[in-house]
Amino acid sequence: MSSQLFAECEIATAATTVREGLAMLLVVIIAMGLLAGAAIHTSLPVFLTASAAITAWLLAFGVREHLSRSRLARARRN
Q1: 0.85 exceeded by the pTM?
Q2: Residues 3, 36 share a domain
Q3: What range does the domain containing 10 cover?
């Protein structure tokens, strides 16, 4: 009985995760549309500067997450 309940909880969790993922995808697509529309009305130097700043922020975030996950994985092994 408890294994069946556990399986049902996993299915419900997976469905929730899919819905959350689709909602996030929709938000990202809308945000990209708004940003692309705003980028059309700016000058090229302003657009390139903003693009460089966003790229630097995303790279820093990615490196931070990678280091955090690798430290966590190392701590779990020890």
Answers
A1: no
A2: yes
A3: 1-41
Q: Does residue 48 share a domain with residue 26? A: no
Q: What is the pLDDT of residues 13-57, one digit of tens each?
A: 666 677 888 889 999 999 999 888 888 888 999 989 989 999 999
Q: What is the DSSP string of 23-42?
A: HHHHHHHHHHHHHHHHHHTS
The answer on 74 and 48 residing in a single domain is yes
State the total domains in the chain.
Answer: 2
Q: State both tokens at 73.
A: 């994985």
pLDDT digits (tens, 9 = 90+) for 59-68: 999 999 999 9
CA angle 56, 32, 49 (to 5 degrees): 35
Q: Let me know whether 15 and 48 are in one domain.
A: no
User: Rounded to whole angstroms, how far apart are CA atoms 75 and 58?
Assistant: 26
Alpha-carbon separation of residue 24 from 13, 18, 20, 30, 34 (angstroms): 16, 10, 6, 10, 15
